[in-house]
Design a protein that fits this description.
Helix content is about 25%, strand content about 20%. It has about 270 residues and is α+β, with helices and mostly antiparallel strands. The protein binds a DNA duplex (16 and 16 nucleotides) through loops.
DNA sequence: AGAACATCCTGCTAGC
DNA sequence: TGCTAGCAGGATGTTC
């Protein structure tokens, strides 16, 4: 599942390999992927546009175009952006949109579960009005984090996954962050003393930074890949996620799995308090 | 306010 | 072996 590190990896690939190119033609298949606007409107809005730069907040990805508008991408559960050298006659299964570039390559949007989205947004990107600061680039200080957590009464796991508080953290990295911070998923912000808050702040930064360096997590069932179809290696450094029954890397107690905030959650009962 | 649940969807898998 | 029911999850919306 693409979260902040996976989206950032794709953004960096796009920045390096498609910035400067021009979209010469576009095609949309099906009605699910481009649903904020009519496919015809989308196609005419991107056709002929030169790609100027890339940006990201949380799991939202944007490519600035030469008319000031942004090509917006959200991968949601299973979306993939793939740069393929071939033309669209050899599109793989679940390819819902193809942008042909003047470089001869094509940008394919592949998404089996069709939760992902492509759309054209304006320069101000109103879709981001309800999205909080980026959990990595805009994390700020420990004091900033305390302020952002505020007086919420729900468990830390739910708060970390709330994109209006901090954006980019999903089910995988929230578990990893709370393990590294040695905090239970159900702890509330007001229960955190100064050292605990500092650990949480550091864990957010550490876990996301390392996952970006490892080019994201590719778990066997929900295969995330980069712009060239290559898997990441961050799953190798996961301490708790999808490790139910396996020994904790710190204390060797078995990792437990619970349902929390509507999601499967993994933690060490001994290390996280 | 917050939690629990349904919704969108397909691929995988546990269990017959 | 082959089928199917259940599960998985990001964002959003509804209900309690």
């Amino acid at each position: 599942v693409p979260e902040l590190p996976e989206v950032e990896t794709v953004r960096r690939d796009l920045q390096e390999h498609i910035v400067g190119a021009t979209i010469v033609s576009a095609a949309v298949h099906g009605h699910r992927t481009v649903r904020r606007q009519k496919p015809d409107q989308f196609i005419s809005a991107v056709s002929g546009r030169k790609l100027i730069s890339t940006s990201r907040r949380g799991k939202y990805l944007f490519i600035e175009m030469d008319d000031g508008n942004r090509l917006a991408v959200h991968l949601r559960m299973s979306g993939q952006l793939l740069l393929r050298s071939n033309h669209h006659f050899d599109r793989i299964k679940h390819t819902h949109a193809i942008l042909d570039l003047d470089s001869g390559a094509s940008l394919h949007f592949v998404d089996p579960r069709t939760f992902g989205e492509l759309w054209v947004s304006t320069a101000s990107i109103p879709e981001l009005d309800h999205v909080g600061p980026d959990a990595l680039d805009e994390l700020g200080t420990v004091i900033d984090l305390r302020r952002r957590l505020g007086t919420r009464r729900s468990g830390l796991k739910a708060i970390l996954m709330n994109q209006a508080v901090l954006s980019g953290i999903g089910n995988i990295y929230s578990d990893e962050i709370l393990f590294q911070a040695r905090l239970r998923l159900t702890r509330t912000p007001e229960s955190l003393n100064r050292p605990a808050l500092a650990r949480l702040h550091q864990a957010i930064n550490n876990v996301l930074t390392e996952a970006v360096e490892r080019r994201g997590s590719s778990l066997s069932d929900e295969q995330y890949v980069d712009l060239f179809g290559k898997v990441g290696t961050a799953q190798a450094s996961h301490c708790v996620y999808a490790r139910e029954g396996s020994p904790c890397v710190v204390c060797e107690r078995k990792i437990e799995r619970v349902k929390f905030a509507g999601r499967s959650s993994f933690y060490c009962r001994n290390c996280q308090r």
